Please model this.
Amino acid sequence: MSTKTMKRILVTGATGQIGSELTIELRKRYGGDNVVAAGHKRKPSEKLFSSGPFEYVNVTQKDEIEKVVKKYDIDTIYHLAAVLSAVGEQNHQLAWNVNMGGLYNALEIAREHELVRVFWPSSIAVFGPETPRVNTPQDTVLIPTTMYGVTKVAGELLCNYYFLRFGLDVRSVRYPGIISSETPPGGGTTDYAVEIFYEAIKNKRYTCFVREDTVLPMMYMPDCIKADIDLMEAGPSRIKCRTSYNVTGMSFSAGELAAEIKKYIPEFECEYKPDFRQKIADSWPLSIDDSVAREEWGWKPTYDLAAMTKDMIEKLSKRFAKGKP
Ligand code: SER
Model:
């Protein structure tokens, strides 16, 4: 396995919820010109566009990724491009093609061009109804019931295979729901935990698409970025798991989140009208045991429900006060 360091980074899915913030952080650390942002359909924000190179890439087309890797002499890929769980249930073919095809292309390019390192996010969606739902362990039953989950389990196995067979230094974490204020998520089951903030501040009302007692593991964006960077910067000998590490920040019910928001916006009213996404939420864990990540590469989250809610409300209120959407 290569001991070279990461110098020229490509982020796929850079216009997405995680990519739009992770790319900016990577540019701060490694220099704007050294971090290439790749998006597909969504237009990049001004910040993303002006802080370093931007390229349009369809990850299902290997040559499109390869062209960018060659053009910028890329040595590290953060492969974030994916179709999330709810959209994946509405279009399972698209989820399979983008999630599996995209990852396979990224890994093959990394192998062929002998890249230094690859990061790929897995998800709590790898778990399913037979998995223990409380303090879900690192090594447990992985029989998901969504296409998104199927692609994440298969993706974990593929990453592990490229490590074992070709010595590719590929690293991964299983993200819980990610809460953030910069770019809204698109098409996930945990999206309610972000939408609720936008609606509470703008309209003082929210109709939540899962039941009030639905509990899921979540993480605030600064911790999400910290997990990516800590994992990618850890010495290779510390990374013993090459499928994907459990990580989490907090767990709460939709009702507990609404109550926390009410502390800042007393008029806020939340009603609950579960739709097809309830079934997906019910197949996922309530809480995650991330002790292996803590022991092996020092993972430690910072934000709990109270700290995350305070920060989200402050950030979004400021943005809306300036008239930004
Ligand atoms: N946030 C994702 C989703 O809801 C889970 O990885 O699809």
